[in-house]
Amino acid sequence: MTTNEKEVKEQAQHLDRVEGLDSHDAGLAEHALPSYHDKETNRILRKVDTRLLPVLVLLYILSFLDRSNMGNANIAGLSEDLNLVGPQYNYALMVFFFPYALLEIPSNMILKLLNPSTWIAILMLAWGTVMTLQGIVQGYHGLLATRTMLGVAESGFFPAASYLLTTWYCRFELQRRMAIFYGGAAISGAFSGLLSYGIVQMDGVAGLEGWRWIFILEGIVTVLVGCCVPFILPDSPRKASFLEEWEKDHLMERLEHDAGTAAGQVDYDDKFSVKSLTGVLLDWKLWLTIVCCWGNSIIIYAFTYTAPTIVVSLGYENAIAQLVTMPLFVAGFLGVLLFAWLADKRRIRWVFVAGPYSIAVVGCVALLAIPQTGGYEGVTFFFLFFIPVGAYAGIVSILSWTGNNLAPSWKRAIGMAFILTGANLGGLVGSNIFIAAQAPSYPLGYGLCLGILCAAIASAGLLALAYRNQNRKRDAMSAEEIRAKYSDDELTRMGDKSPFFRYVI
């Protein structure tokens, strides 16, 4: 037996010794858990980070780029060339979200039946093909059709990737990784401006307008990357070819015992049951979580689609406006990383939902108050930064919070897809609240964003109180009482309903 294997075995033996601890004192129970933060564990996690995170970031950049590049295409002439009138551009944005939101739960159920790399590759090939075809549409109805099909094809990627991360990392390792992954949205927001600026220079090549080449080239790249996904995306610790057998066992052991107390255990090999679905749909806390998600989805989709136009209203030329939006999204990315690191370090979630959203609230209030004439363009641009910095960071805490507090694995997969379904229905609102006729002040857009952010902050506070109260009730029960009432198998199958499970607050 190697030194590394011996060290892991000793940790497992230590865990067996503390299984019978009285969990009346939750702090004592947590203290008795093996730390799993030795040098070898950190080395294994670095191997996982190196193989998993870069792939997911690349895929999410392509995903967000493909769904959100309408804003850049529009200021490059899409509406004029397709003769869009009135609210038709907004409708084209909106139709994406119907299938995108409603198919997320079915998609994650398919994910549990297939290898994640296989399912994600299928999705990418589909949406890359649709994106390419969007570059040759000739009118409003063709644009509606491709946007709808893009929603169908992209619906499964984000919930699949988010769930996949929860199968690799323990609860207070997750948000930092989720931030790196989700930061791909902010990166793509910045990168899309620069990329679109370059692609639009192809105007006239092959007789096509520059905005068409945005869709065509980005779609082709997505298809090519999708063909590689089965070979580059690791599916699970058990199937990771880059890990040794004892490393796989070590990762799975620490994940299975990541339930908040020494006596708890999470099941990663459970089977689907109707209870997994009804347990999600009937959980009021998850419905409240959706309200928290709207603080991100409504605001970010509205901001992403409208930011280039807002910048144009500040006096920048159309082409330059695509470049000027880049710092806004870079700031959003940095905010995601900072708040995620703090959330994992402090081992708390709700504060890092309410806190970032409060920053976005300041931005909305300021943008409503600043006069849109009289030389205040620089001040307006300054407060635009508050929106991506606050709204991007909040959703990462929410997703990590939800993944932390749902078990076993089927309930987690369905639950994460469920809140994303609700969140992305918010995109229907976000794509319609910045009305062109209200430019440059956009009172409806900023005002509605302000109200939604306040509701999201209040919802996060209520969730924190609910989880804290549930933990206190479970702390009042001794391990002896619990084991007298339930068998070990029943406790494992109960998932987050187990008296041994402790919710993250």
Automatic annotation (TrEMBL):
Its main location: membrane. It is found in: Membrane. Keywords: Membrane, Transmembrane, Transmembrane helix, Transport. Residues 52-473 form the Major facilitator superfamily (MFS) profile domain. The chain crosses the membrane at residues 52-69, 89-106, 118-137, 149-170, 179-199, 211-233, 286-307, 319-343, 350-370, 382-401, 413-437, 443-467. It comes from the Eukaryota. PROSITE patterns: MFS. It holds the Pfam family MFS_1. One of its GO terms (cellular component) is membrane. The keyword Cytoplasm does not apply. GO terms for molecular function: transmembrane transporter activity. Signal peptide: none annotated. InterPro entries: MFS, MFS_dom, MFS_trans_sf. It is a multi-pass membrane protein. Gene3D superfamilies: MFS general substrate transporter like domains. PANTHER family: NICOTINIC ACID TRANSPORTER TNA1, PUTATIVE (AFU_ORTHOLOGUE AFUA_3G03820)-RELATED, PERMEASE-RELATED. This is Major facilitator superfamily (MFS) profile domain-containing protein. It comes from Saxophila tyrrhenica.
